[in-house]
Q: What sequence folds into this?
């Protein structure tokens, strides 16, 4: 049975979260009160089995939850996404008989908060190479030295999943492991002062010999594309939940456009609401059709991930395409809502003004537009010839 998002994120809780979003944005402040409320609602345990105090959710359930949360506070939803990526990957692997990340669900059940320490400045290979140094330790663990960017939940994470490259053997290997906040070897830079998504506090993290012990090393993989289930799981959950957040932004922008059309009055037409203006009606219909098109695509991908469906080599094309289409759709819908809403949306503090800035972050998450188009073209046409 599908999880009811309104039962987890009740209207009252959602309004509280929405009411705090402008202040977090204005002050460039972490969403601590939101996080506390979401922890109390077991939201961070969404993928944890019900028998262990979680919600027992699948990817399709969490997509609906994240769409709902993003309609209230996009930056909060985006940052929580990173914890949900790791717990979602752990569940996906477990569902397919791989228990290598079982500890992630166990620790999430105990209240640990996971960060996604993967992105590196200038590393356009993303999951297939790393400029972080991974050095083997005598006990089988690894130390990591390098710089990770856009590490959301910076003030709050207690565990961080990361990776680096081990060049000490005959062939370089990409090593995936988890470090702890209460151990030395890492520090944050106080550098998060961005155009949008400010409450996520996705600060740069400098790893200076941070150690993941042997029981928290989960993979050693060759450099380059690899069909390992961990790589697929990270890509699949990351792209799908990102698409959910930006779809939620589009849905909220559409709601605001509709509200504005009913509220605003036309002097030229004798005070009639803009909801009776044929041009405005056409614009809102166009926005609604865009939202109505992306939601089924998102739901279908999430349902197939839960079902373990075999889309073969088309999976990466479909996941890249979903993320790209969702973020582009959201940007277009917010832009349209700004037009419908009138000049008031251009003022600081207006919700549409904040959404306009927040939605731009979608341009920078993997897969970026260039990578997405390359992935789709390669699936359909084959690789570029030398």
A:
């Amino acid at each position: 049975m599908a999880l009811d998002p309104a039962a987890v994120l009740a209207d009252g809780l959602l309004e509280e979260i929405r009411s705090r979003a402008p202040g977090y944005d204005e002050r460039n402040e972490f969403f601590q009160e939101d996080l506390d409320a979401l922890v109390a609602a077991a939201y961070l345990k969404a993928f944890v089995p019900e028998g262990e105090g979680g919600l027992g959710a699948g990817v399709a359930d969490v997509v609906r939850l994240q769409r709902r949360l993003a309609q209230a506070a996009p930056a909060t939803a985006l940052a929580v996404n990173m914890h949900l990526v790791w717990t979602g990957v752990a569940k996906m692997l477990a569902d397919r008989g791989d228990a290598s990340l079982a500890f992630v669900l166990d620790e999430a059940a105990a209240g640990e908060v996971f960060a996604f320490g993967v992105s590196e400045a200038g590393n356009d290979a993303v999951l297939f190479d790393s400029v972080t140094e991974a050095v083997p330790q005598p006990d089988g663990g690894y130390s990591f030295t390098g710089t990770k960017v856009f590490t959301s939940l910076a003030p709050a994470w207690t565990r961080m999943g990361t990776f680096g490259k081990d060049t000490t053997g005959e062939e370089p290997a990409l090593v995936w492991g988890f470090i702890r906040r209460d151990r030395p070897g890492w520090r944050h830079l106080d550098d998060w002062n961005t155009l949008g998504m400010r409450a996520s506090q996705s600060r740069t993290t400098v790893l200076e010999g941070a150690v993941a012990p042997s029981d928290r090393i989960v993979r050693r993989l060759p450099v380059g594309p690899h069909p390992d289930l961990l790589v697929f799981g990270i890509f699949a959950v990351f792209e799908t939940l990102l698409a959910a957040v930006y779809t939620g932004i589009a849905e909220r922008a559409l709601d605001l456009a509709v509200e504005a059309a009913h509220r605003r009055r036309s002097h030229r037409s004798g005070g009639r609401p803009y909801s009776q203006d044929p041009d405005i009606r056409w614009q809102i219909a166009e926005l609604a059709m865009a939202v109505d098109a992306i939601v089924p695509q998102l739901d279908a991908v999430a349902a197939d991930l839960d079902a373990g469906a075999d889309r073969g080599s088309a999976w990466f094309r479909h996941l890249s395409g979903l993320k790209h289409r969702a973020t582009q759709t959201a940007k277009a819908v917010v832009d349209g809502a700004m037009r419908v809403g009138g000049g008031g949306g251009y003022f600081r503090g207006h919700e549409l003004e904040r959404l306009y800035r927040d939605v731009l972050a979608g341009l920078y998450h993997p897969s970026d537009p260039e990578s997405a188009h390359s992935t789709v073209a390669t699936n359909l046409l084959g690789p570029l010839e030398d």
User: Anything to note?
Assistant: The longest helix spans residues 229-263. The radius of gyration is 21 Å. The chain has a mean pLDDT of 96.
